[in-house]
Specification:
The structure is a single chain. This protein has 116 residues and is mainly β. 0% of the residues lie in helices and 58% in strands. Strands 2, 4, 5, 6, 9, 10 and 11 form a seven-stranded mixed sheet that branches. The radius of gyration is 13 Å and the shape is globular.
């Protein structure tokens, strides 16, 4: 199994920045990719950004040019730098680990609130 611990959420004004971190532990060799999902009230959980072990990234259209995902394989940690935050970015953000085999891992979630 994989355990994920997130940090870095909080309250920020529109136009501001935040950085999320997610540290993985446990069977980290089984991780193929890590990423961030978010879920706003009344909405489905959606992929925000993902990075593979090889460094390939993909982003939701709504965050392209504003968010940057990066990873440190040696520390089994992934980061999400979020700039130009907008109220519509308000959500609970979840770290996710996709594994080669076995069940995926999820973090506990961290709240991000962007005030207008």
């Amino acid at each position: 199994q994989v355990q994920l611990v997130e940090s870095g959420g909080g309250l920020v004004e529109a136009g501001g920045s935040l950085r999320l971190s997610c540290a993985a532990s446990g069977s980290t060799d089984s991780i193929a990719a890590m990423g961030w999902y978010r879920q706003a009230p009344g909405k489905q959980r959606e992929l925000v950004a993902r990075i593979t072990r090889a460094g390939t990234t993909n982003y939701a259209e709504s965050v392209k040019g504003r968010f940057t995902i990066s990873g440190d394989n040696a520390r089994n940690t992934v980061y999400l730098q979020m700039n130009s935050l907008q109220p519509e970015d308000t959500a609970v953000y979840y770290c996710h680990a996709r594994r080669y085999l076995g069940s995926d891992g999820w973090g506990q979630g961290t709240q991000i609130t962007v005030s207008s």
